[in-house]
């Protein structure tokens, strides 16, 4: 997209300055390698998708990239509800869909509570996790990416359990920002007081995937005052805000009143 826009602006000579972006090919190559490691030539790849997807172009790019690299690999798209209705586990714990063994399950859904509206979706997730299919991500990896796990890893002495007490551990810890538990203990109360004293310094983060769910500024104060004596507050962690340097650029969007 950026390369296309530069050409349209008559700035094609600047394309050579753009960094190489291998995200698409890299991820798809990883999925294909997982497929090959599974070792069943007739197996399929399953994309777990939403009922209505607003990110369909990105998903299709991955599908097309895999098909271009390995046209013999079949790719299916199913919601969690459809997985519950259409899949089974055989006696070898293989996940079977439409008569085919599933080699790789790539989650493009299943990251938000609303995507599990009933027990059927939870049962579908459990069935996939119990299967031999290679999951991207597995439930362990998905949980490891939550803010609570990040906050726990940042606690004093925890990182040392995994990396030892050497200089490398210190260098890793140096890139951590402040991460604080809001549990109902002395440290949690101290974190609440610290945030209420300077709300602009912090962000409240729930155990959710992606953006759009964090709280900043006056919303931090309002939420903490509301949740201070509620177990709900333990579902969040407090994090020091990362304030990046300001840069100028263009935002390209449909219906904008001022063209770039």
TrEMBL record:
| Record-linked Pfam families | GSH_synth_ATP, GSH_synthase
> Which superkingdom, per the lineage?
Eukaryota
Q: In which pathway does it act?
A: Sulfur metabolism; glutathione biosynthesis; glutathione from L-cysteine and L-glutamate: step 2/2
Q: Domain (Glutathione synthase substrate-binding): give its ranges.
A: 43-144
The Swiss-Prot or TrEMBL record lists the needed cofactor(s) as: Mg(2+)
A single Gene Ontology CC term? cytosol
Going by the UniProt record, its keywords in alphabetical order are: ATP-binding, Glutathione biosynthesis, Ligase, Magnesium, Metal-binding, Nucleotide-binding
How does this polypeptide assemble, per the annotation? Homodimer.
Family, per the entry?
Answer: Belongs to the eukaryotic GSH synthase family.
Which PANTHER family would you find in this protein's record?
GLUTATHIONE SYNTHETASE
What this protein is called in its record is Glutathione synthetase
